[in-house]
């Protein structure tokens, strides 16, 4: 594939030039931004089984990671504070390392079937308080750390992106088997995937067993 390069004549270089491309922000879009988790935000969070966590390292590099659990897994501690349990993963610790270096985070809460989302921005702290962690245990497995977020802004986001993408529309669901499995892709990208179909299936089965064993 030929490498793409941007024509410097078409780069937007400042906010003034950016805003000239768009109509003025609707007053409600400005006013809707809150600094506390009101009853609507708290109910949305209680229904949400999934969020995306955006972080940024000390070097300015951004990262987004998915977080998921049964609905209501994020605990609202007060009107300005929430806590996210950190479940077992691949131990890269990208998001957690970023939070140690730069506490600014962005959260996007989703609810299956809802086209609107909830956006929360704030500052995060990694906490190992035993009582808090125990309260977020599942199957008697306690998370090693909680991400406690002090909210600075919160607002509902409109449905346009989800309407455009038809994310929840079953008629638009794609067949996962049309792409290689996760472990196949990772091995292609690293050591090389085996050519033998039986060997590849054994690796796929092992990953599924690992999911069951290490989910919590």
From TrEMBL:
Stretches assigned to the Pyridoxamine 5'-phosphate oxidase N-terminal domain: 37-158
Protein name (database record): Pyridoxamine 5'-phosphate oxidase family protein
Protein's organism: Roseibium porphyridii
